[in-house]
Amino acid sequence: DGGITQSPKYLFRKEGQNVTLSCEQNLNHDAMYWYRQDPGQGLRLIYYSQIVNDFQKGDIAEGYSVSREKKESFPLTVTSAQKNPTAFYLCASSILRGQPQHFGDGTRLSIL
Amino acid sequence: GQQLNQSPQSMFIQEGEDVSMNCTSSSIFNTWLWYKQDPGEGPVLLIALYKAGELTSNGRLTAQFGITRKDSFLNISASIPSDVGIYFCAGQGGGSEKLVFGKGTKLTVNP
User: Fold this and answer.
1) What are the pLDDT digits (tens) for B26-80?
2) Preferred mutation among A34, A43, A107 to probe B, highest tally of B CBs within 10 A
3) Which residues neighbour A26 within 8 Å (Cβ) at sequence distance 6 or greater?
4) Which of B69, B41, B39 lies closest to B54 in space, CA to CA?
5) What is Dmax (Cα atoms) for chain A?
6) Closest residue on chain A to B92 (Cα)
């Protein structure tokens, strides 16, 4: 079945550690996105990519990094510079930028 | 920046009742989207609206793109327990292709 797969479902980070969240899609979508969701809040855009080897900062990019080496994959690294990383992270994709986005099932990141 | 006001924040209703929620914006949007999110999962797209005045249905769900392009509403008719979740509106446009999300409406349906 086509879809967006995020892994792992739950992730724990130690202080000072970088962690990488995986996002893979087999929908042949050009655009991919990473959002952060905090309780009672809407989704906030971290990074997005319109095409392979290109990505742009969203509204809250500080402390995060991404890469887009393959069309299907858009991993997100939460670096030690992100002082408040505990959140639910959602990856999305769309056929083209500006088209409706479809979401994965998220990764919940917690601090040990 | 663009902001969306989504209301109500939460609703507690009896099974069988109709539900209405809405989003308003300070900016004009070209697209309005409605998503539903179940606990611990990602949002699922319910309805997409592309034209001012457009009224679109998806089963028991009906959504409208406001004439002013600054608002949208979602109605759910004859609610059932599986309608429980958080409903998000999202708008796109006004010179930006980013999606702007409302803070969600949490729906609880009592059997």
Assistant:
1) 989 999 999 999 988 999 999 999 999 999 999 999 999 999 999 999 999 999 9
2) A43
3) A2, A3, A72
4) B69
5) 38
6) A98
